Amino acid sequence: MRHQYQCAVRWSDMDVFGHVNNVVFLRYLEEARIDLLFRLARQEYPGSFAGGSVVARHEIDYLKPLVHGHRPVTVETWVTKIRFASAILAYEVKDERLTYVRASTVIVPYDLDRSQPRRLTQEETSFLERYLDDRSEGTLTP
């Protein structure tokens, strides 16, 4: 199963070359990730990801330039790997015709009180497993 997030392409996302700036794609990925981990996961398991999570690594392949339009793009998110203290999320940013970006993010659950990484809880792992598709590795190399 893949999480589908509809993300508006804002006029301010454009750069002087007339397409969405490469850095803005990180914001699109962040919006989709927050919707998945902090809205959906907490609806099912209210305490999940309560301490937050940090990004340990991003990898992005820019495939096509994206220009402003009046329709949102879809950010599909799924999980390619779950470890004891991290997970790898993969993404595609696309519309009905084209895929603009493929990306991966290593996330690490975090304990805010101790200011350190922590292990995934059983509830968090169970939630992430619903989105697991290890046949589609994204862009990160193991």
Q: For the report, how would you describe the main beta sheet?
A: 6 strands, antiparallel
Oligomerization status of the protein chains: single chain
- Return Rg in Å: 15 Å
Q: What is the percent of helical residues?
A: 10-25%
- The CATH topology turns out to be Thiol Ester Dehydrase, Chain A
CATH class: Alpha Beta
Shape: elongated
Tell me, rounded to a whole number, the average pLDDT: 91
Low-confidence spans: pLDDT under 50, at least 5 residues? none
Cα distance, first to last residue? 22 Å
CATH superfamily: Hotdog Thioesterase
Can you count the helices? 2
Number of strands: 6
Tell me the number of structural domains: 1
SSE sequence, one letter per element: EHEEEEEH
As a percent range, the share of strand residues is 25-35%
Q: Could you list some keywords that capture this structure?
A:
2 helices, alpha+beta, single chain, 6 strands, Thiol Ester Dehydrase, Chain A, 142 residues, 22% helix
Secondary-structure map:
Layout: E1 3-7, H1 22-44, E2 53-62, E3 73-82, E4 87-94, E5 99-111, E6 116-117, H2 122-129
Antiparallel strand pairs: 1-3, 2-5, 3-4, 4-5, 5-6
Account of the protein in words:
The chain has two helices and six strands; from the N terminus they run E-H-E-E-E-E-E-H. The protein is elongated. Strands 1, 2, 3, 4, 5 and 6 form a six-stranded antiparallel β-sheet that branches. The mean pLDDT is about 90. Strand 4 (about 85-95) and strand 5 (about 100-110) form a beta hairpin. It has helices at about 20-45, 120-130, and strands at about 5, 55-60, 75-80, 85-95, 100-110, 115. It has a single domain (about 5-130), classed as Thiol Ester Dehydrase, Chain A (Roll). By secondary structure, the chain is of the alpha+beta class. It starts with a strand and ends in a 13-residue tail after the last helix. The longest helix has 23 residues, at about 20-45.
